[in-house]
From TrEMBL:
PANTHER family: INOSITOL MONOPHOSPHATASE, INOSITOL-1-MONOPHOSPHATASE-RELATED. This is Inositol-1-monophosphatase. InterPro entries: IMPase, Inositol_monoP_metal-BS, Inositol_monoPase_Li-sen, Inositol_monophosphatase-like, Inositol_monophosphatase_CS. Its EC number is 3.1.3.25. Gene3D superfamilies: 3.40.190.80, Fructose-1,6-Bisphosphatase, subunit A, domain 1. The keyword Repressor does not apply. It comes from Hydra vulgaris (Hydra). Pathway: Polyol metabolism; myo-inositol biosynthesis; myo-inositol from D-glucose 6-phosphate: step 2/2. The lineage of its organism: Eukaryota, Metazoa, Cnidaria, Hydrozoa, Hydroidolina. It catalyses: a myo-inositol phosphate + H2O = myo-inositol + phosphate.
């Protein structure tokens, strides 16, 4: 089934999610055009929690425009955005329909004109993702997922096939995040060394975007991605891509995926999650809803 057929099926069922997903796709395309227009321009860059935690005026503008459009369409819904939370708004997630948005996932890439940037728009109802749209405007990749209706890349259905039999046959991804605390860096380095030495993985990539890492698991370009630190706005759309493509999301302890928990393992199959978890040395993280 193609995305077009999926949308026709939602229309035939008069499924209210059709309105949600069409609106999100339209808004993501508009946001992507702004990101593309600004990509080669000189950026106005500032920092948030630390010197390596960047935000640009484009991040702020794009989030403002996304929420303006969503609030017009869905005034009764709730909203959580990376830059709004950074400015003090709550990231408390209720059971209500909540749009969770990262205007530019991969902000550091955007500043440095690295193409791994994406706008991520997720709709979460009863604390579970129902609709997800991730648009990478420089790569020109549009990922769309609807709960129980599939995940799609540029309109084509995503299905994970022939997952690796072990980590030694896997290409995996990890992110350093923005924290440069020496103890945290030492723990992250130890994890990478332990995994490479114990499991002889074929490669370890780091794109700078949690959302795109998870989308690459969904389209079988990565076999596993793990990180301590991604936020709900990084994962609200892309966790659904992985699930609908037949992959699996857990915490770094191998427990059920926790959107607000700030640890993630996304993988093509359960056996490589079961392989990696015992090797990991856990790193303390602060929940998004604490
Ligand atoms: C990024 C995340 C990535 C993390 C980076 C950064 P942002 O999101 O997608 O996983 O390692 O530090 O937080 O800040 O570019 O939207």
């Amino acid at each position: 089934m193609s995305l077009q057929e999926c949308l026709q099926k939602l229309a035939s069922k008069q499924d209210c999610r059709l309105h949600y997903v069409l609106t999100a796709i339209n808004i993501a395309n508009n946001a992507g055009n702004i990101i593309k227009d600004c990509y080669h321009q000189v950026k106005t860059v500032s920092t948030k929690d630390c010197a390596t935690d960047l935000v640009t005026d484009t991040d702020k503008l794009v989030e403002k425009l996304i929420f303006s459009s969503l609030k017009t369409e869905f005034p009764s819904h709730k909203f959580i955005g990376e830059e709004s939370v950074s400015n003090g708004e709550s990231s408390e997630l209720s059971l209500e329909p909540t749009w969770i948005v990262d205007p530019i996932d991969g902000t550091t890439n955007f500043v440095h004109r690295n193409p791994y940037v994406a706008v991520s728009i997720g709709l979460v109802i009863n604390k579970k993702s129902e609709v997800g749209v991730v648009y990478a405007p420089i790569l020109n990749d549009l990922y769309v997922a609807v709960k129980n209706e599939g995940a799609y890349l540029n309109g084509q259905r995503l299905k994970i096939v022939n997952p690796p039999s072990s980590l030694s046959n896997s290409l995996i991804a990890f992110e350093w995040g923005a924290d440069r605390d020496s103890d945290v860096l030492a723990l992250k380095s130890r994890n990478l060394l332990d995994i490479m030495q114990k499991h002889q993985v074929r490669g370890m990539r780091s794109t700078g975007s949690a959302a795109l890492n998870m989308c690459m698991v969904a389209c079988s370009s990565l076999d596993l991605y793990f990180e301590w630190g991604p936020h709900c706005w990084d994962m609200a759309a892309s966790n659904l891509m992985v699930e609908e493509a037949g992959g699996f999301n857990t915490t770094t302890l191998g427990c059920d995926f926790d959107l607000m928990g700030r640890t993630i393992i996304s993988a093509a199959c359960k056996n490589i999650i079961e392989e990696i978890v015992p090797t990991l040395t856990q790193i303390p993280t602060r929940r998004d809803d604490e």
